[in-house]
Amino acid sequence: MASTTSRRLNVDNINPHVREAKYAVRGELAVRSEEYRASLAKGDASLPFEQVISANIGNPQQLDQKPLTFFRQVLSLLENPVLLEKPDVLLNHLGYKPDVLERAKKLLASVGSVGAYSASNGAPAIRQSVADFLERRDGFSASQADIYMSAGASSGVNTLLHVICAHEKSGILVPIPQYPLYTASLSVLNAACVPYLLDEQKNWGTDLATIKASHEKAKAEGIDVRAIVIINPGNPTGASLAEADIRAVIEYASQERLVILADEVYQTNVFIGEFISFKRMLRQMQKEQPGTFDHVELASLHSVSKGMVGECGHRGGYFELVGFDPAVQAEIYKFVSIMLCAPVIGQCLVELMVNPPRPGDPSYELYDAEYSAIFNGLRERATALHKAFEQMEGVECGAPQGSMYLFPSIHLSEKAAAAAAAEGRTPDEFYCMRLLEATGVCVVPGSGFGQKEGTLHFRTTFLAPGTEWVGSIVKFHNEFMEKYR
């Protein structure tokens, strides 16, 4: 983009760290897909497809996932409390249940108005509800004083990295492949990303030897490595970590005095095995070996954007701090105070997520049916997509374990690589661009997340309804492989 002398700002004099940051999930392919979507909306019949499938981003409700009725009914009353003055209409004509009205009244009593600021770290009653949820989930105590409400997990990550990274030599161990929020944020902070490769041959699990090697290399280069990021279940890989992997990371973090940043936003999206939180495992290890792990610092994050909730646009989330110095926590509180508070309606949605209707409640039957339908639909589409990949020449993909993604590897010919180079693209970018142009399906090249040298991948969600789009990927792939054979 050409600079101009008539404006004070140009692309050469803005913050260079912002300029260098990359975020492939909403990069060139996503921009192109939105252009196609706009053309289709205007009646353009020249494209070889009739719809755009945004499989590039975990945005469930953009892809027709329906909101959970209980959540939206409560939110409607929070936004317009005057409706509570007409309980007969709500209950007898609009399908609201008594527990919807009760929850709305309780939340309004806690926050006053969703149009008012809350405490900087979140409304106390909502933080207590989160702490209660954590106690039920993990079997260990939690304190609302250690809970910080955030505008989605991304805001929490931003807060934590700002506090942890003190200078350009501050380093964070980040899994590769990774969700590009981490590398982009570290770039903006001018801090050091210390990549460690996940093991594709072991369902994208962590490999302690690889973590150690990356850590030691960074230290030898003068990097002050301060924290390790774990995304579990994984994004973009869909992996769900085993207990042994989690224990190994905690033991290593304890030995090396590393803060653990546990990104656990997909904790309800587990198809194989069970989700094990880092908090639960840390507390279990502290119980097994008193005094050994008491100094471990853990920050775990969760969000309403994923799981069966899928309320990305409401920007609700939280993080819990374990083992942090109280003086550091005070600085974290100060940092979140600068942004005043997380969206209060998003905070209320977090409360609904961690405290949904329970068996016997009037809204439970419908909630359970909707929740189960979303979960089963995700699993069915993940299975269908995985089966399709198994049929495709040169494509390898592990069975779907969790989250909302599959991250297949693709093996492309030298002819395809040469065609990509002629366009100034990597082979995986070239493949994904041709896929979008032929089918309207937008995925993200593996290079946008990081991948082992010499390998190629792409990430796709399995959120889109139906399976027709899966068939279009198979057809495209067969034609692409023939063309560049």
UniProtKB/TrEMBL annotation:
GO terms for molecular function: pyridoxal phosphate binding; transaminase activity. SUPFAM superfamilies: PLP-dependent transferases (SSF53383). Keywords: Aminotransferase, Pyridoxal phosphate, Transferase. Its cofactor is pyridoxal 5'-phosphate. Residues 98-467 form the Aminotransferase class I/classII large domain. Belongs to the class-I pyridoxal-phosphate-dependent aminotransferase family. Alanine aminotransferase subfamily. Homodimer. PANTHER family: ALANINE AMINOTRANSFERASE, ALANINE TRANSAMINASE. This is Glutamate pyruvate transaminase. The lineage of its organism: Eukaryota, Fungi, Dikarya, Ascomycota, Pezizomycotina.
